[in-house]
């Protein structure tokens, strides 16, 4: 019997805390194998739970840093991993400072999927093997024109290559979640297209998808506050009309990047009082 089942037996998972523990040993092993961890690599885990995944990661990695918010779990984990190559970081993954890490491997708390992914992507790391709710994973990987193409697709794909590696059924967890899950490989890389102002680019994408059924011309005027731009009505007439006729889901990441750069130039001129 694997050691982790012993600890799982002590713990009553609390669904309100996103506690769905992965108990299928085959899937746990597959996740660790895919992560291809070497002895000179440090691994970050988010949401330790009973330490089932942690234990397998620790066998491969130089060091495992694992973040857990539930104090009752932390007390058990500190005992379990005493004197090992595992450091338990107590706290909310959205608030604590991440240590330096080479790879991140986690069965994420789904309620923080989006925020924690963007927090991760601000770090410099080689690879992420991350479990998400299946629908969320599909939005991460969707391409322009596909039904799941969304703000998340554009933003995540700006920072990384993303790929669904396997679907995971609810029965692999205890207690089973109501949703299917999927393991995603996240490989950070420089963006395929450059942007002059990343914050403006992301705000533009948010504004567009906030009103995804509207043509961009209207979505951008209505969402001008998201970008912090005044006089948007006049500005949209100076943006490419073919793009302004499209809806958010029809615009590719490269086109958003070009639009954001154009807006940056137009607003920079206005700010400095120069006219074109
Ligand atoms: C889906 S469980 C995964 C547990 C374990 N790694 C596994 O694979 O079975 C998510 C874990 O994250 C913890 N958690 C939830 N929200 C968190 C947060 N904001 N920061 C850190 N841990 C969190 C929960 O207490 C739970 O133990």
UniProtKB/TrEMBL annotation:
Residue stretches making up the Ribosomal RNA adenine methylase transferase N-terminal domain: 27-190
Example GO molecular function: rRNA (adenine-N6,N6-)-dimethyltransferase activity
Keywords, ordered alphabetically: Cytoplasm, Methyltransferase, RNA-binding, rRNA processing, S-adenosyl-L-methionine, Transferase
Locations listed in the record: Cytoplasm
EC number: 2.1.1.-
Predominant location: cytoplasm
Binding site for S-adenosyl-L-methionine: 20, 22, 47, 68, 107
GO cellular component: cytoplasm
Family matches, as NCBIfam families: ksgA
HAMAP family assigned to the protein according to its UniProt record, in alphabetical order: 16SrRNA_methyltr_A
Function noted in UniProt: Specifically dimethylates two adjacent adenosines in the loop of a conserved hairpin near the 3'-end of 16S rRNA in the 30S particle. May play a critical role in biogenesis of 30S subunits.
Family membership noted in the UniProt record: Belongs to the class I-like SAM-binding methyltransferase superfamily. rRNA adenine N(6)-methyltransferase family. RsmA subfamily.
Protein name per Swiss-Prot or TrEMBL: Probable ribosomal RNA small subunit methyltransferase A
Species this protein is from: Methanocella paludicola (strain DSM 17711 / JCM 13418 / NBRC 101707 / SANAE)
Lineage: Archaea, Methanobacteriati, Methanobacteriota, Stenosarchaea group, Methanomicrobia
Gene coding for it: rsmA
């Amino acid at each position: 019997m694997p050691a982790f089942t012993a600890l799982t037996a002590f713990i009553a998972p609390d669904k309100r805390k996103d506690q769905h523990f992965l108990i299928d040993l085959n899937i746990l092993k597959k996740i660790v194998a895919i992560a291809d961890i070497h002895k000179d690599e440090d691994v970050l885990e988010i949401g330790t739970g009973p330490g089932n995944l942690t234990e397998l990661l620790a066998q491969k990695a130089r060091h495992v840093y694992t973040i857990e918010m539930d104090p009752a779990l932390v007390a058990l984990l500190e005992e379990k991993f005493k004197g090992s190559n595992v450091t338990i970081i107590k706290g909310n993954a959205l608030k604590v400072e991440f240590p330096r890490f080479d790879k991140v491997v986690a069965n994420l708390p789904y309620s923080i999927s989006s925020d924690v992914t963007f927090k991760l992507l601000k770090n410099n790391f080689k690879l992420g093997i991350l479990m998400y709710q299946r629908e969320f994973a599909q939005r991460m990987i969707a391409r322009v024109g596909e039904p799941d193409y969304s703000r998340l697709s554009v933003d995540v794909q700006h920072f990384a290559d993303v790929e669904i590696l396997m679907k995971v059924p609810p029965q692999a967890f205890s207690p089973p979640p109501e949703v299917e899950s999927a393991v995603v490989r996240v490989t950070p890389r420089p963006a395929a297209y450059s942007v002059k102002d990343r914050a403006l680019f992301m705000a533009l994408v948010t504004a567009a998808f906030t009103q995804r059924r509207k043509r961009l011309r209207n979505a951008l005027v209505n969402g001008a506050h998201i970008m912090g731009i005044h006089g948007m009505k006049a500005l949209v007439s100076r943006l490419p009309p073919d793009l302004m006729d499209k809806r958010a889901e029809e615009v590719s990441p490269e086109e958003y990047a070009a639009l954001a750069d154009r807006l940056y130039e137009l607003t920079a001129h206005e700010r400095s009082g120069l006219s074109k």
